[in-house]
Every structure is written in structure tokens, then in C-alpha cells.
């Protein structure tokens, strides 16, 4: 009888030990599920928050661009009634660099083109007619500004850049009928001028080609 009792006692101990092991395993599984669910909630919350932030940032950028397009550019000069005839001869423009007027039948390539030597005014003006922004500089311009502006032009279709030795100011931005002098490449008016006038409302021939012209 003692032996049977011992066996029963041992069996009960094993069952208790097994049940305790199972209880601990269930507890670990519950903790694992809690951790997994918590992590998923944190990730989801982060995605929601991140998505909201990105949407907010995009909305803010849209508002900034709209403001740039609708606000006047400080210090900008404007010319109206500019001729648009095609001519094969040199044109005596009333401003330097020119912002419009009669011009050569072939435009200067303006698909993010940076020229290191002077280009013909008559071809560049044709590019402005197509909605390009023309960045020009003289030998008084700071090298760092020239480099930074060249990088911007190099990333912007419907823009071109070249030196103009006889312009009055070191850095000038021109579009058809529009022109502004800027102090540096970091001048806020640079970004505004590009936003407003690359294929902007001043363009006489919006959508016309900026490639396939004179390559310089």
C-alpha cells in the first residue's frame, strides 16, 4: 500500500509540475502576444502620425508654392508690349540681359542647360518666349553663388544659365518681360522667381520645346 501511495504521490507531483510548466508557457505566450500587439500598435501609430506629418508637410509646401506664384517678387522689373518677330539679324535690346523682343527663329537649348561661355541674346530671348528662366552673371559674382545657381538650373527643365559680361549686377534672373537682381544664390527671391516663372503665366508660348535648338 505504501508503494502505491508513493506512486500516486509521484504521479500527482509530475502532473502538478507539468501543469505548472504549461501555466508558465501560457503566460509567456500571453506576454509575447501583448508585446507583439503593443509593437504593432506603436508601429501603426507611428505610421499614422508619420503619414499625417507627411501630408501636413505636403500641404504646407503646396501653400508655399501657391504663395510664391501669387505674390509679387520684391524688386522685380517688368516690361510689356515686347515684340515677338523672328529676325535673322542682331537685335539692339533696351535692357541687359534682354527679357523679350524680336529674336532669332531658333531658341537656345534651355532644358536645364548651363553654359560657361556667352550665348547669343537673340537665341536666349527665344528661350524666354518658351517659358524658360535665364540666370546670368558677370565676373563680379561670387564663385560659390555661381556654382549653387548652376546646380539649381541643372535640375530645372525650362531654365538656362550663362555669363553676361556687360550686365550691371553680378547676379540676374530673367523671364519673358520679367527681371530681378539677387544678392546671392540663397536669396529667397531665387526660389520664388523659378516657382513663379518657369512655364509661368508670362510665357507667350507655353509648352513649346526647350530642346532641339542651339546647343551653344
Automatic annotation (TrEMBL):
Span list, region Disordered: 1-30, 60-80
Highest taxon, organism lineage: Bacteria
Listed transmembrane segments: 32-55
Low complexity: compositionally biased ranges: 1-13
InterPro entries: DUF3105
Cited Pfam families: DUF3105
Keyword terms of this UniProt record: Membrane, Transmembrane, Transmembrane helix
Residue stretches of biased makeup (Basic and acidic residues): 16-28
UniProt name for this protein: DUF3105 domain-containing protein
Organism: Streptomyces halstedii
Taxonomic classification: Bacteria, Bacillati, Actinomycetota, Actinomycetes, Kitasatosporales
